[in-house]
Amino acid sequence: MDHLPYRDASLPVEERVRDLLGRMTLEEKAAQTAAPFGSAVDVHTPPGTGWGGAVAALCTLGLPPRETARRANELQRKHVEDSRLGIPVLLAEEALIGLKVRDATTFPDAIAQAATWEPELVEAMGRTIGTQMARLGVRQALSPLADVARDPRWGRVEETYGEDPYLVGCMAAGYVRGLQNADGGFPVIATLKHFVGYSASEGGRNTQPAQLGPRELREIHSVPFEMAIRAGGARGVMPSYNDIDGVPVTGSKAHLTRLLREELGFDGLVISDLGAVGHLHTKHGTAEGTLQAVAQAIRAGVDLDLDNKVSSDRVIEAVRTGVLPEPELDRAVANVLRAKFRLGLFERPYVDLDAVPETFDSPRERALARTIAEKSVILLQNRPVDGSPLLPLAASVKSIAVIGPNAHRPMGQLGNYSYQVLDSMTKRFALAADPEAKPEDAEEFAGELGADRAELLVESVPVVTFLDGIRRRAGDSAAVTYEPGCRIAADDRSGFDAAVRAAAAAEVAVVVVGDQSGINAFGTVGEGLDSAECALPGVQRELVEAVVATGTPTVVVLSHGRPYVLGWMADAVPAIVSSFFGGEEAGSAVASVLFGDVNPAGRLPIAMLGSAGAAPFPYWAAARSTAYVDVGSAVVFPFGHGLSYTDFEYRDLSVASAEVPTDGVVRLSFTVANVGARDGDEVVQVYGQDVIGRTTRRRRVLVAFRRIRLAAGAATRVTVEVPTSMFALWDADEGWVVEPGLVRFFIGGSSTAATLRGRVTLTGGNHLPGPDRPLSSSVGVDGSEAALASFRDGTESAATVTDAHDTPVTQDNTVLEWLEHPVGGPALRAVFEGVDGDVEDLLEPAYGLTLTQMVAFSGGRFPQSQLDELLALTRVAPEADRRL
Question: If we measure between CA atoms, which residue out of 763, 743, 633 comes closest to residue 697?
């Protein structure tokens, strides 16, 4: 067989694909489209034709790494040596927060990874996971998610990188680069999911329809996938379960071929989500039966069918009955074969057992998990107690009460796609990951599927709980007591009295509350576990309030997957720390922050709203939306928010040019200084706004960010280059378009903390950047005066690089023209002093109105008398002051 052309690694991949495909029978072709799920199918006993892929074949074994690798080799041997053509099988596992097998590192959840705002760190994690996969023989990771979280009620927010497309795209691309380039000898596939619009489901309910237009689909939901494909090189994609405007993505050629492959440039393998092909018949009703569902999916662009059953027989019947033309099947099979040739699977199907370590959780790997956990911790609030911020804990503290249902419970700090959580569930219910499975109907559960029924049923890596971490760090310097107080979701207050006594007897109380992750059952957050209220589950709020009522200074630590509605907590508790599921080292990481060994610098990748009823409420809409009659529209903790034990100052903004062509690059420079007494990290955030466009533009868009380290008293110069294509809008007729006009920039430490502001005018005609447009900015850090001088050569500060404007403003000028005027702007802003939020954000919806129109439309809030005063002020201003 070795002399056959498809076995010759020196030949081009396409020639090898054509040769092998031409030798295959219909049965062998159909087998290559099947990817059975290991918890429902005995994937270690393949048929003579083999399978295209096998998912969860190794995690379900529950064996140590070396024995798992031996079984992987045996499964490959059955495909390579016992089948007619010797086509190896593609082994796939989940790997979002670590390779999901026994004894592999459990990293923080994806939402925690995003809270680091450090894609390079996620890339390092991806590299570690990719190396582990290569050692074990796993050649495809069903990760990462490139979904943009739109609604905190959606249970899968914990698996995402947050609510901003650019942040999500940077994180996903970093993960992909790290994973796919980890081991050149054993390349692997990263699989982006869930393409596309999955996170925009109605009401935040999992797998429900998404009502998205083509512009929002591209500008918000497709961009992260495009970044991970073009900048990360992603070789795999998984379609979403949902339908978009009535069209299920798994059966949509418009989405899987025209958008994914033709517009975004994807050239890899498409594998369905679990059971999604069958949903075309059973859920969506776009296919008359299972044969038609298979045909619809393959015609749309699905290559591999991940299913709880072996699907190849359906493919064979669909072809023989004429439902699926064989050339359509050949397209899918060719993609599967192409992926295997590109991976070198035919040349290296087996792994070296001697190279497999005893554990995939070495001290080095645990150290990386701890670093990510530490950098993900977010200090949400830190009010003074007795004149000083409560955190970090004073060295004089001699007694600490650690309280709460997640304080000493390993399952309370792990994401739902961790080996511990998911495989403990599949041991109880094999179809746990299938959204159409009904665990509540399983007789053995008797309808008891709550979060408090979650159990750790598998053996794996050690997990440091919050109590463990605090006790280890406190050592002999402080007495640490512990009371759980209550359970996660149960309506049981029997532990309150003991918790209150412990808090009253301590100098400080640390209350650890939050979620239990799960999938369709046994959790409060996760896949299929959506929430109407985004509140702390069970009686946990009452527990916090009871502890606070003792008068003992209280720190609340959130170990959670969902961004909660926390207005009540912000009012009552002096210090609040967020630890989105922090993985195996969460306890050590949080203890380091509480005691001040680590200066926190995590930032929220998704806002915490004032009401779940306001969702979806992305940060770019916050200033534009009005309040409900019964609830305000303000967020409690905004996107990008996070406090530090030191203070940072932004100053000296320079803009290289006040005018930039529509096909150019905007160059900004500014200084960031640590003006506090501690070393610390600052997450520099740059937002932009295309003020006027042919379509409604987002009021603020994250266009650049960088996490930087500054010693106490140190300062550095930050330079940012933003391609104008970052402001491109999508037009149904022209595609991506950059229009001329005003662009505003907001620079600071969060989406609402714009310490510096600048503006640039894009000049020239409309620019059509095409599919290869730049998708990211560059951020450089250089504290040298030479670098600053070089940047400023021939430029002025942003305060003086503006358009000339000699004419006084009148009632017929627009609000935007007033704000841009040197006399009218300050006068108009003064009218609205004292309002909540930023004045320009408040006025932004009225930019196009004249002041006369604003009087008419304001309902008395901006009366004619106020306009008369403004006009009088601008008329008497000295001529020199009316010039820009």
Answer: 743
Query: What's phi and psi for 798, nearest 5 deg?
Result: -60, -25
Nearest to 59 by CA among 361, 427, 437, 339: 427
Mean pLDDT of 653-679: 97
Cα gap 711→680, rounded to integer Å: 6
Q: Tell me the residue length of the chain.
A: 884
Rounded to whole angstroms, the Cα distance separating 715 from 717 reads: 7
Rounded CA-CA distance 588/465 in Å is 8
Average pLDDT for residues 458-476, to the nearest whole number?
96
Distance CA 671, CA 296 (A): 56
Whether residue 785 has pLDDT greater than 50: no
* Contacting residues for 7 by C-beta, under 8 A, at least 6 apart: 1, 346
Whether residue 279 is preceded by a cis peptide bond, meaning omega within 30 degrees of 0, is no
Q: Rounded distance, CA 30 to CA 693, Å?
A: 49
Dig out the tokens for 221 from the structure. Answer: 């939901």
| Under 8 Å between Cβ of 744 and 691 | yes
Alpha carbons within 13 A on the beta-carbon side of 726: 27
CA dihedral angle for residue 874, residue 875, residue 877, residue 883, rounded to 10 degrees:
70
Give the whole-angstrom CA distance, residue 766 versus residue 365: 49
Interatomic CA distance for residues 337 and 331, integer angstroms: 10
Q: What is the 3-state secondary structure (H, E, C) of 210-222?
A: ECCCHHHHHHHHH
Rounded to whole angstroms, the Cα distance separating 204 from 209 reads: 10
Question: Alpha helices of 419-492 — where are they, by DSSP H?
Answer: 419-428, 466-474
Contact of 829 with 684, CB cutoff 8 Å: no
- Show the tokens assigned to 629: 């009659």
pLDDT, tens digit, 9 for 90 and up, residues 120-162: 999 999 999 999 999 999 999 999 999 999 999 999 999 999 9
Q: ∠ at Cα 297 (295, 302), nearest 5°?
A: 125
d(CA 89, CA 553) in angstroms, rounded, equals 58
SS3 label, residue 879: helix
- The angle that helices 290-300 and 312-320 make with each other, rounded to 10 degrees, is 90
Task: Evaluate whether 307 touches 278 at the Cβ level (below 8 Å).
Answer: yes
d(CA 422, CA 144): 17
Give the confidence band of 835 by pLDDT, cuts at 50, 70, 90.
low
- Hey, is 340 helix, strand or coil? helix
Distances (CA, A) of 355 to 62, 360, 397: 20, 12, 48
CA atoms lying within 13 Å on the CB side of residue 571: 7
Question: Tens digits of per-residue pLDDT, 394-446?
Answer: 999 999 999 999 999 999 999 999 999 999 988 887 766 677 766 766 666 76
**Contact assessment for residue 164 and residue 639, using Cβ atoms and an 8 Å cutoff:** yes
Alpha helices (H) in 137-194, listed in sequence order = 165-180
Spatial neighbors of 148 by CB under 8 A, at least 6 apart, are 160, 162, 163, 164, 165, 168, 199, 220, 221, 224
Residue 790 token pair: 């070089």
Other beta carbons less than 10 A from residue 798's beta carbon: 23
CA max distance for the chain: 94
Give the tens place of pLDDT for each residue, 577-619. 999 999 999 999 999 999 999 999 999 999 999 888 888 888 8
Closest CA to 515 of 506, 507, 524: 524
Beta bridge partners of 688: 701, 745
Q: Are 105 and 418 in contact (CB under 8 A)?
A: no
Return d(Cα 267, Cα 257) in angstroms, integer.
Answer: 10
Q: CA-to-CA distance for 187 and 159, rounded, in angstroms?
A: 24
Q: List, in order, residues 6 or more apart from 291 with CB less than 8 Å away.
A: 314, 317, 318, 321, 323, 324
Residues 588/629, Cβ–Cβ less than 8 Å: no
Strands 735-737 and 729-731: antiparallel
Q: Which residue has the tokens 């003064």?
A: 830
Q: What is the mean pLDDT of the chain?
A: 91
